[in-house]
Known about the structure:
single chain, 223 residues, 8-stranded mixed β-sheet, 6 helices, 8 strands, globular
Amino acid sequence: MTRSTGGRADQEVAEAWEALVATARQTVADGLVVGTSGNVSVRVGDTVLVTPSGVPYDRLAPTDATGVDLDGRQVLGTLVPTSELPLHLAVYRATDARAVVHTHAVHATAVSLLVPELPPVHYMAAALGGPVRVARYATYGTDELARAALDALTGRTGCLLQNHGTLTHGASLDQAYDRTAQLEWMCRLWLTASAVPGRSPSLLTEEQLAEVTERLRGYGRRT
């Protein structure tokens, strides 16, 4: 199914699709997914562009743009949307997200097997809203997984999916991807520190994280 909106809207969709494909390819280049195991989406108006199911990202072309409305009805393209579409749409319906990144990052997935919440080992946890929770396990592509993820995302912009991977969202593809990369790095940091025999990682307190949260409010703003 293909629907043309014409003019500037078509150009916006084309540019968003190009950015989405670049982000999807970056997840592979950075080792956050294997093959097509993750998925990426970006919202343009009321249309959600998503990576299609089972198509290697290096084969995606401008003419392969795939999009759905917020009810999941396909409005753009002929390729089948990712099987994790319910997960992405749940985030868009419940938050002000403009982009969502889902990966199977190794260190983050490993942490999801061990604890119900990533211990606050670094202040960048504040950039995700606080200590990152692990969503209870549910079969991929199901509404149950989407509900579990939303529970874990309450007050957060990222979570771990038990025995599965990561989910982050942001105001842009760049922000959502950066949050994914930061989350994977923090998971690797905790696993590395936890592996030292006879030692336990020092953790940040709620007060310390709150102080960082306040400082981040003005980060990057001009005075």
